Amino acid sequence: MLKGLHHIAIICSDYEKSKRFYTEVLGLRIIREVYRLERRSYKLDLALNEYYVIELFSFPDPPQRVSGPEAAGLRHLAFAVDNLEKAIAHLQTYNVTPEPVRTDPYTGRRFTFFTDPDGLPLELYEA
């Protein structure tokens, strides 16, 4: 029935700040940017390695949502990286401070968490 994951939708509180984070810090490529006047909202379609992955939305005064890797609901978004230290060093050049590196006890793979400008938990997973 399911073919694959199509995209992940994220609502941000500060569009320009989040746009910079996802494009400059994380390096996602802009596919299309649309301003929807009737909603007073931007919709930014982003790609990773030529695959459409994230819809970034802005809405006037969105309500806050409880977040954190251990909160009920969507736990986090994980991005695969080849070299965890290099990815962490890149984030740190943008003043993004990841949590201490952990090791998955079942796979032996290393990972770390960090947050986007709205506190959405994100993960780097060494694949």
From TrEMBL:
A Pfam entry, by short name: Glyoxalase
Top-level taxon of origin: Bacteria
An annotated Gene Ontology molecular function: metal ion binding
Source organism phylogeny: Bacteria, Pseudomonadati, Bacteroidota, Chitinophagia, Chitinophagales
Stretches assigned to the VOC domain: 4-127
UniProtKB keywords: Metal-binding
Record NCBIfam families: PRK11478.1 (NF008551)
Name of the protein in question: Glyoxalase/bleomycin resistance protein/dioxygenase
